[in-house]
Amino acid sequence: MENKISVLVIDDEKNFTEEIHELLQNKGYTSFVANTARQGLNILKAQEIDLLILDIRLPGVNGLDVLKDVKEIYPNLEVIIVSAHGDMESVIRAMRLGALDYLRKPFRHVDFQIAIERTHKFLDLNRKLQVMEEKNSLISEALGAKIERDFIGGSKKIQDILALAMTASEFPDTNVLITGESGTGKENIARIIHYASSRKDNLFCAVNSSAITESLLESEFFGHKKGSFTGAINDKKGFFEVTDKGTLFLDEIADMPFNLQAKILRAIEEKKITRVGETEQIKVNFRVIAATNHNIDQLVSEKKFRLDLVHRLNTLHIHIPPLRERTEDIEPLLNHFVSMFSVRMNKPNLKIDKNVVGTLKKYHFPGNVRELKNMTERAVILCKENILTPQDFPVKTAGSSTDGMGNELLTMQDQEVKLLRQALKDNAYNQKAAAETLGITRDSLIRRLKKYNIKIKKDD
């Protein structure tokens, strides 16, 4: 990334601030800590701080009041809220006051590092947006600061999609269904619609429908009353309720259990929900944007998805074509990713050989833009010279199976299968441990094993 950011941690727990201070310094960040709001504000006056990590509950003062004051004085300062209390209303208020992210204590170091890196990336991209003008884009710079900038390209297909997204943003109560293969950028389009709409100041809540266990789905969506089932130790708001006046993004909607679909449909139609264990209805005002990489019509014909729910979600349909069908976008995407990763990896003078784009255009890209992004990051990391060549991109193109020196070229899918097998082997085939090694959830690991038909065998 560009310049290492400076971080201030304000938390009344000295053990916590010392631990985070050491972790940040080990990662090369400039770190400051304070155990009171007054100490923290004094540091902000004396130092240039890029990121504030702020506890919601501080001695003698509400952390949200501190957040409000800080954002008024330092509007460009990004803030991550942390709290040991699962008070979703406070979290929502913090987001509305300008917080960028939220972490609940206790959290794993890996989750904290991901949040820091995500914020660092956001800051880098925000800085770039201030010094460069996006070409051939229908997205304003203000909107660009809210979303991933990976959805770019000069093809007519991309421009048509962006135009349709901007049209959708003008009708904040209209539900949208986004279809397309994995890695095409469906969530990016959903964020564009939300942040360009009148709902932009309220919560955008992204939910992976396939990542929630079936036994908890109803509670997660509708909330529950304390004591309504084993483990319900507190009242809890569900996704519909916390996204009141905002946007609920239902990713992988086709993987939602069939028996829950009727309740989801009713909530969308009536804009009323009932928490598990209660009888009183609660009015909610949310917009639904759903996405899937499946053939939804086929699932309907197979009685795996409700037709009436499709009709309710599909008021406006946006389909994102795979990268192989818009190869003219490969070059601007590649330039964007190389620029981003070369700065991040401290290789600012990295150039691209003229044959790279031609090679990539012959590749099928089963993982689409996400695959190109990961592939480029790998190429930048491993590149030993100041120029990227076709040999830096491990793709198997039509009619070619080696790199010209007898070495087999693996597709990204082949590499993923290899990584999955190795992680399982290294962790004695313990799925939870293997998932942690890969930095994914156990449910995500299981879906990948099913996708690639990988059997759990000791001789695998």
Most strands sheet? 5 strands, parallel
Task: Give Rg in angstroms.
Answer: 23 Å
Give the helix level as a range of percent.
Answer: 40-55%
Number of domains: 4
**Count of separate DSSP helical elements:** 19
Structural class designation: alpha/beta
Q: In total, how many beta strands?
A: 16
Shape: globular
CATH class of the largest domain: Alpha Beta
The percent range for strand residues is: 5-15%
End-to-end C-alpha gap: 38 Å
Taking pLDDT < 50 over at least 5 consecutive residues as the criterion, the unreliable ranges are 129-139, 399-409
CATH architecture grouping of the largest domain: 3-Layer(aba) Sandwich
| Fourth CATH level, the homologous superfamily of the largest domain | P-loop containing nucleotide triphosphate hydrolases
Strand order of the largest sheet: 2-1-3-6-7
- In the CATH hierarchy, the third-tier topology of the largest domain is known as Rossmann fold
Mean pLDDT: 82
Structure report:
The protein is of the alpha/beta class. It folds into four domains: 6-130, Rossmann fold (3-Layer(aba) Sandwich), CATH 3.40.50; 143-321, 3-Layer(aba) Sandwich (Rossmann fold); 324-409, Orthogonal Bundle (Helicase, Ruva Protein, domain 3), CATH 1.10.8.60; 413-451, Arc Repressor Mutant, subunit A (Orthogonal Bundle), CATH 1.10.10. It contains 19 helices and 16 strands. The protein has a five-stranded parallel β-sheet, sandwiched between helices. Strands 9-10-13-8-14 form a five-stranded parallel β-sheet. A two-stranded antiparallel sheet has the order 4-5. α1 links the parallel β1 and β2 (30-34). The chain is globular and about 65 Å long. The two termini are 38 Å apart.
